[in-house]
């Protein structure tokens, strides 16, 4: 089976730079895949893609050695199994609140005896190799999202669940749950303390933790705090910010030019 490069990065103590797709287009996925990310996540929770678009994005990502991840819409056995069958090498599952949620997630994303995933790797065996089903449980990454007050309170049992490989922090939902204003790149002390608690639990369990960020400088700061998997914005957010900056520069420059004689 094709090795999961993200596991290798973590094993060596490295940090993963993760791209994020919200736009339902294979070409966007292909462009992002050629930008140097270690992994790219197809966001099926809040992104605008359906299953067929997600498959085409996995195919586009496969033009490179970038590792394809997906954020599942929910803790749903059918969808988790289908994205894995399509070739996702990592699944980020939202709203994992306790050990029982974590165990269900592992069951849905793992073949027996670890789980109850149904056999049928229709594209995964093409992408991963003919021995995919023999090694999938060891190579696929299962990341549980901690983003609620209950999840924060019970983060130790979540990260300690057999088969959970890492935690991914949803900062906006976590802030909401803690009665704080949701925002990326937060400076809110309540939320930052929650980050520290999650990092401590993951370190104690010997498992990595990831975070969604708004800017690269903040992501680097979060790496210093202890995060080993960092996402910055999404394809849509990057496009919006870059285009806004270009338009502002053009209009700002034009305003300084006397065009009355044109």
Summarize the structure.
The chain is an alpha/beta fold.
Structural commentary:
This protein has 262 residues and is an alpha/beta fold. The protein has a single domain, classed as Alpha-Beta Barrel (TIM Barrel), CATH 3.20.20.60. Helices cover 47% and strands 15% of the residues. The protein has 13 helices and eight strands. The protein has helices at 5-11, 26-33, 51-61, 77-85, 99-108, 124-128, 132-139, 149-153, 155-159, 171-177, 189-205, 216-225, 235-255; strands at 16-21, 39-43, 67-71, 90-93, 141-146, 166-169, 209-213, 229-232. The chain has an eight-stranded parallel beta barrel with strand order 1-2-3-4-5-6-7-8, surrounded by eight helices. α2 runs parallel beside α3 (51-61) and α4 crosses α5 (99-108). The radius of gyration is 19 Å and the shape is globular. The chain starts with a helix and ends in a 7-residue tail after the last helix.
Notable traits:
single chain, 262 residues, alpha/beta, TIM Barrel, eight-stranded parallel beta barrel, globular
What's the layout of helices and strands?
Blueprint: H1 5-11, E1 16-21, H2 26-33, E2 39-43, H3 51-61, E3 67-71, H4 77-85, E4 90-93, H5 99-108, H6 124-128, H7 132-139, E5 141-146, H8 149-153, H9 155-159, E6 166-169, H10 171-177, H11 189-205, E7 209-213, H12 216-225, E8 229-232, H13 235-255
Parallel strand pairs: 1-2, 1-8, 2-3, 3-4, 4-5, 5-6, 6-7, 7-8
Helix pairs in contact: 2-3, 4-5
Number of separate strands: 8
CATH class division: Alpha Beta
Low-confidence stretches: none
How many angstroms separate the termini? 65 Å
Radius of gyration from the CA trace?
A: 19 Å
CATH domain fold name = TIM Barrel
Which second-level CATH architecture applies? Answer: Alpha-Beta Barrel
How many domains? Answer: 1
Classify the secondary structure makeup into a structural class. Answer: alpha/beta
Average pLDDT score:
98
- For the report, how would you describe the main beta sheet? 8 strands, parallel, barrel
> What series of H and E elements makes up the topology?
HEHEHEHEHHHEHHEHHEHEH
Helix count from the secondary structure assignment: 13
Shape: globular
The main sheet orders its strands as 1-2-3-4-5-6-7-8
User: Going by CATH, what is the homologous superfamily?
Assistant: Phosphoenolpyruvate-binding domains
């Amino acid at each position: 089976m094709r090795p999961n490069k993200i596991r290798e990065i973590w094993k060596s103590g490295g940090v993963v730079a993760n791209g994020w797709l919200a736009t339902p287009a294979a070409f966007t996925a292909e462009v992002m895949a050629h930008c140097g990310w270690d992994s790219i996540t197809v966001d099926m929770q809040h992104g605008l893609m359906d299953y067929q678009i997600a498959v085409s994005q996995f195919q586009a990502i496969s033009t490179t050695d970038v590792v394809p991840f997906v954020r599942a819409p929910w803790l749903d056995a059918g969808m988790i199994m289908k994205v894995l069958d399509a070739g996702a090498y990592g699944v980020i599952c939202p709203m994992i609140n306790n050990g029982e949620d974590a165990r269900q997630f592992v069951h849905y994303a793992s073949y027996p005896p670890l789980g109850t995933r149904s056999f049928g790797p229709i594209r995964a065996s093409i992408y991963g190799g003919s021995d995919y089903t023999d090694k999938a449980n060891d190579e696929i990454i299962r990341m549980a999202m901690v983003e609620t007050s209950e999840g924060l309170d019970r983060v130790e049992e979540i990260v300690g669940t057999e088969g959970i490989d890492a935690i991914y922090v949803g900062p906006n939902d976590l802030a909401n749950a803690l009665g704080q204003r949701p925002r990326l790149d937060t400076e809110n002390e309540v939320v930052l303390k929650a980050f520290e608690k999650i990092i401590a639990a993951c370190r104690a369990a010997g498992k990595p933790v990831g975070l969604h960020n708004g800017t690269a400088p903040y992501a680097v700061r979060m790496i210093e705090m202890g995060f080993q998997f960092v996402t910055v914005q999404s394809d849509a957010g990057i496009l919006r910010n870059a285009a806004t900056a270009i338009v502002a520069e053009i209009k700002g420059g034009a305003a300084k030019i006397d065009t009355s004689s044109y």
